[in-house]
Amino acid sequence: MKSFLNRLLLLFIFVPAVSGHAADSPSPLTIEKMVNLLKGIDTRIRSSGDYKALFYLEQREKDKPDVVREGLAYRRDADEKLMILFTKPKTEAGKGYLRIDKNLWYYDPSVGKWERRTDRERIAGTDSRRQDFDQSKLAEEYDPSFVGEEKLGNFNVWVLKLAAKSGVDVAYPVVKFWIDKDTGNDLKREDSALSGKLMRTTYVPKWEKLYSESKKADLWYRKEIRIYDEVDKGNSTIVIIKSVDLKALPENIFTKAWLESKSR
């Protein structure tokens, strides 16, 4: 009985308080407003020029030692191009991903060949996906519906449910999304399969921004991403963006030949 009461107490402490909305009550957010919230995130993250980020990737798996990697993510949002190149440790250096013409390719220099992958690909075997490094296309890929209002820690948030649009290939077709009312930035998401099975939970405790000359506005990025595997409980991934550079990149950088040259 004592154990049950303790668990019940924890439930009341940690479950977010949701402001009540009767089933027949109008949503405080129209479809248009919800779409604009998603467009706002897409716009703040989008770069009108080139983008280069140094990232730290920490993988934690139960009953295994932690694995730490470092790498570089390159983006050219105007052409929807993405390159992920691992630089550390030595065993991972030269491995990478290239997204071009809506195709995602993986390269392993130890075997010297490319393999086509999908958006469901686990980046370097971690809980991260391509979307965690790429530009944001939420409004283009998902249709939103209103769930409610909550208090997430110290933040007042909108909670939306996102359903992938017909014919769009995404890592997760169903997403529950928590958006900070003050900044419009997402703070939490739950990614589910089409069946509704929860696959992973992601928290974004830190956002940062820097001024983009080409954009003539601030560019926002998720400074820290914490991803929890909901299928293999105890497994998690931390992504930290250590620095961002918005200077122009070489024209030939988004090619298989360029990535291959980095492992020679």
SSE class: mainly beta
Strand order of the largest sheet: 6-5-4-3-2-1-13-12-11-10-9-8-7
Run of helices and strands? HHEEEEEEHEEEEEEEH
Could you tell me the mean pLDDT?
88
Q: What is the number of helical segments per DSSP (H or I, 4+ residues)?
A: 4
Could you estimate the helical fraction of the residues in percent?
A: 10-25%
Strand elements, count: 13
Distance between the termini: 64 Å
Overall geometric form? globular
Round the Cα radius of gyration to an integer and report it. 20 Å
Low-confidence stretches: 1-24
Largest sheet: 13 strands, antiparallel
The percent range for strand residues is 35-45%
Structural description of this entry:
The protein is mainly β and 264 residues long. It is built from four helices and 13 strands. The chain has a 13-stranded antiparallel sheet. The radius of gyration is 20 Å and the shape is globular. The N and C termini lie far apart (64 Å).
Question: SSE layout and pairings?
Answer:
Elements: H1 2-14, H2 31-45, E1 50-60, E2 67-76, E3 81-88, E4 96-100, E5 103-108, E6 113-117, H3 138-141, E7 142-152, E8 155-164, E9 174-180, E10 186-192, E11 198-212, E12 217-229, E13 236-245, H4 256-261
Antiparallel strand pairs: 1-2, 1-13, 2-3, 3-4, 4-5, 5-6, 7-8, 8-9, 9-10, 10-11, 11-12, 12-13
